[in-house]
């Protein structure tokens, strides 16, 4: 037995019927071979479709959401990253390359590598690290000590590696490496001896002005001497890149006093910046 249908009479302006038929045709709603305005109204009432201005993301909105997805993945919030990716796939007009890139990030997230690395570190298990460098070339490193650190909203692998070729570190730290998790290709356990820690050097820093007053002790700090306008800190440093990022961000209120290998490296960075702005450099 067929269901009894209700009948309503609509009072609509001239030309509206044709517009309804056009919308019904667009959504493939037909009665026989003709578009069905009544079928369209029923579909709207049953919330089977939406009409009106389509929800479209601008290019800037797309870029912001892609950055947000990457930040969520890097911080371990995989479920939130997946939900945001689903929204982009549903509502955003994505180029094929970007769509594939997002799919790779979700299907092979850095969270997987982070968990594997945490297991290796907890067991003190040395491993081979297969890694893609910045040129996209695969390299292999023999890792005999490792730890995960959170820098600038992203997890990094700090590792002591047997290989030193290509290292840009100061001589005492050439075995120390810093790896991005999203460039890891594979991790393979090996039979080696786990080390006690990374190599380190002692760096003397002077914090001036407001930084001297507000300085808070860090785990790596070995010695601190503070007065009203200066705070002298001796710190264990495992990676000069992150140290220089900190010093440059603090500007004139932070000075590397020693060793010369680190001080000279920082001076070179400052000189290069000055040349870009056509500034004269004071010679010691």
TrEMBL record:
Superkingdom of origin: Bacteria
Classification via InterPro entries: CBASS_pafABC_assoc_protein (IPR051534)
PANTHER family in the record: PROTEIN PAFB (PTHR34580:SF3), PTHR34580
Name by which UniProt lists this protein: Transcriptional regulator
């Amino acid at each position: 037995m067929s269901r009894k249908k209700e009948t309503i009479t609509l009072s609509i302006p001239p030309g509206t019927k044709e517009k309804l038929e056009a919308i019904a045709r667009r959504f493939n709603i037909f009665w026989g071979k003709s578009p069905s305005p009544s079928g369209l109204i029923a579909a709207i009432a049953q919330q089977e479709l939406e009409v009106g201005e389509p929800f479209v993301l601008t290019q800037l909105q797309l870029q912001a959401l892609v950055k947000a997805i990457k930040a969520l993945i890097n911080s371990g919030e995989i479920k939130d990253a997946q939900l945001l990716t689903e929204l982009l796939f549903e509502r955003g007009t994505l180029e094929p390359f970007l769509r594939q890139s997002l799919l790779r990030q979700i299907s092979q997230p850095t969270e997987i590598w982070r968990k594997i690395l945490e297991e290796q570190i907890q067991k003190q298990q040395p491993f081979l690290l297969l890694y893609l460098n910045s040129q996209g070339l695969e390299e292999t490193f023999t890792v005999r000590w490792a730890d995960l650190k959170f820098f600038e909203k992203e997890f990094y692998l700090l590792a002591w590696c047997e290989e030193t070729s290509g290292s840009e570190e100061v001589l005492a730290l050439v075995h120390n490496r810093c790896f991005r998790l999203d460039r890891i290709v594979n991790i393979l356990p090996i039979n080696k001896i786990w080390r006690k820690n990374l190599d380190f050097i002692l760096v003397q820093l002077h914090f001036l002005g407001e930084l001297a007053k507000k300085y808070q002790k860090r785990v790596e700090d070995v010695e601190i001497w503070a007065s009203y306008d200066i705070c002298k800190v001796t710190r264990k440093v495992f990676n000069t890149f992150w140290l220089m990022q900190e010093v440059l961000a603090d500007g004139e209120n932070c000075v590397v006093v020693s060793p010369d290998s680190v001080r000279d490296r920082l001076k070179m960075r400052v000189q290069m910046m000055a040349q870009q702005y056509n500034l004269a450099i004071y010679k010691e």
